Description:
alpha/beta; Rossmann fold; globular; 7-stranded parallel β-sheet; 8 helices
Amino acid sequence: MEARVDGKIVLVTGSTQGIGRAIAVECAKSGAEAIVVSGLDTGAGEQTVSELTDLGSEAYLVVEDLTIEGGADRVFDQASSRFGRIDALVNCAGLTTRGSTLDATRKLWDELFQINAKEPFFLMQRMIGTLRRQKRPGEILNILSMNAHGGGGELTVYSATKAALSLITKNAAHQHRFDRIRINGINVGWTDTPAERTMQAELLGKGPGWLDEAAAQQPFKRLLSPKDVASLSVFLLSDVSSPMTGSIVDQEQWVLGGVDS
């Protein structure tokens, strides 16, 4: 059976670029009735909306900053006001700003937890509450990170935010299983996105060709692509994966805990 989201209205945060945009596009290709595009970049958002419309889905742009308190409520209010219902929520918006035990500031801690854990939680709260009132099933997917298992020193705070959202995912799935609300997550491995290339080449000073060299050293000679994550996302949002809930899938080419003999 093919994984599809026919007739569903899907809200995807962080969908003006990168993985979030790829998820939105894959949902449109897989039959979504409508997609709510949410992000900060109006121009990129309008381009995404145009692409989704060309693929046959109605698309609606919500420009909102989830680093600001209450962003989740503003996004959900606009989305539900436009369509009357949301069938699936994908929490993909996030920041990967570096911060270790030695140099992380209180400001960084607050900013990362705000967008990576707090606002996703309150989007889940709004989504779950609405589905229960409407007595409808639904799907929630949280885009996490392999760093939720434990990341490099410079990713200490970031890793903590993803670990927090991972636990929230499982707790919420357990609490709402009899509401038929499926809640799953993906621990995404190293992915080749425009933002990753910019960060490695410019912000971290590794140069324009470094990421390609690093990709060649991976087991499958490449990094994950946004399309890889999008394909798995559609599977988890589709009825094909039902009744699976409370699962955190490691989408990675390195095996966690594996030891070479």
